[in-house]
Amino acid sequence: MAKQPLKKDGSAVEAAVQDGISPYWKTILLVLVATGVIAAYYAGESHSEVAGAGFSAYVFTMLVLYGGWKAWTSLSGKKEVSYSPAWIIGATVAHVAVLSGFFPFPQGYAGASFSLFFKIVGFSLLPILIVLVVSGFGFWAMGKAFADFETRSSEFRIVTGLTLGLSAYLFFLSVSTSAFGYSLVTTFLPLAGMLAF
What we know:
72% helix; mainly alpha
């Protein structure tokens, strides 16, 4: 069957399903390959974790949740699915919570799932903060340098703003760490200066 362009009404997807071709085969293949890689990695002799039962339950739970969500979106008649920033953040936090809940800790580690969850969330906040601050600084600097920057496409503004902001942050970070040594303070010092603008 020749590849059909996806129309807004979803007719190409419906035709593919009627022909017996699932439009989700790439996702299914990706999940199978990722599961195989993770299983092979933890099956090595260098790991002492007994991860089979915990990760099997995690994979099964994620398959049930994802399958239920896909079934609901397919049966609800929605032709297009949209994702808001709040939805993406919520799904990410829920995924981390499921992963932390099924992580195979040794016996006697009460509350370790909660600790792992908050550590993952806590360690994720710094890179998220860096991306937000440096991109905001890049947008501000590009807007000051070029009067027509706001009229450009959103893709162009995102790439150029993030590139300029990250370059400026790395420059200020190298200067501050050269002068005062590498520490959490010298990491936040350039961010505070860029945030002031």
